[in-house]
Amino acid sequence: MKKKILKNMEWGILICCVLLLAIGMVALFSATQNSNYDEFKKQLMWSIICIPVVTIITIIDYQTIAKLSPLFYGIFIILLIAVFFTEPINGATSWFDLGVFAFQPGEFAKIFGILFIAYIIDLLCIKGREEINKPWKIAIILLATIVPVLLIAKQPDYGTAIAFLVAICFMLFVSGIRAKYIVVAILIVLTLLPILYIFVLPEHAKTRIEIFLNPEEDPRGAGYNIIQSKLAIGAGQLLGMGMFKGNQTQLGFLYPKTTDFIFAVIGEEFGFLVSSIIIVLYVFLITKAIYVAKTAKDDLGSYIAMGIAGLLFFHMTENIGMTLGLLPITGIPLPFVSYGGSALITNFIAIALLLNISGRRQKAIFIE
Predict the structure, then answer these.
(1) 87, 91, 189, 337: which could join 24 in a potential S-S bond, CB 3.0 to 4.6 Å?
(2) Which string of DSSP letters, residue by residue, matches 2-66?
(3) Which one-letter DSSP state was computed for residue 197?
(4) Mean pLDDT of all residues in 82-97
(5) pLDDT of 236 above 90
């Protein structure tokens, strides 16, 4: 790899992710002491696997990767259909159980979907960014977006589906799309929301929204997890109760403590101080991703970086928000901190792409 590329890379992004991973590993080590550190060991293995993945993705020019995105997009659409024929895990057909590990195609579909949509936008706007405003071009982008979103939502995995939509919105926002299309989209969403809630959302999803609004309505049932999460975070106070000493964490009242509610584990055992550091690290990471988009050498790099910024923003906001009772529970993991092999590899692929784009940048593209 050329020295110039290494010099241009935003190494702060990688350092930030390593720090988040380290905090997550410590929390997992504490949370899994009663299960022979099973998930901790697996997460450590996945972390090591991510090293060559990041290296390979960083070395290959992102333009080459984007050209291959239609192939990967097609493969993951097939996998998203095939996963419906698997046995449900926790009520969702989201995983391929391969014995040694479970593979979640929806996680990978997000990042390769972003690459594909960025590639399409770049092709459609080859004559200028104003080209994005032609209705038939917007229709192509929406079609390419809606297929994976519907398949992921059908699993059901509404959190991942929404994360993908948020990422695409970030990309469209910087693509030069006119304000009238944004306004129309907002009005359509506002109009469809009550219809979707009444006629489309399954009962368990409605229950989550109702419990979010009033968790004390069913404290021993649907509202149990969120109540325990808030108790755990509150008990941690400034410096936490100490590693291995969290009541909700160690006595099994917090579930699932290694994935959805890992932030509650950190809040209880390490306190407000470490929890705040995590939020600061995410803000820094998202800000840097936007900066990479702003300084990318071409529009393609900008779209990819903004899509990744959108993913990170939604995952951070939703996961931390739901553990605090500020947002409905959706099962969205906290990037680099929550347990999960598929999510960890996907997140590091996203980071490798940011490093890739930043290493090859030359000038800012956001100009009047």
Answers:
(1) 337
(2) -HHHHHHS-HHHHHHHHHHHHHHHHHHHHHTGGGTTHHHHHHHHHHHHHHHHHHHHHHS-HHHHH
(3) I
(4) 84
(5) yes
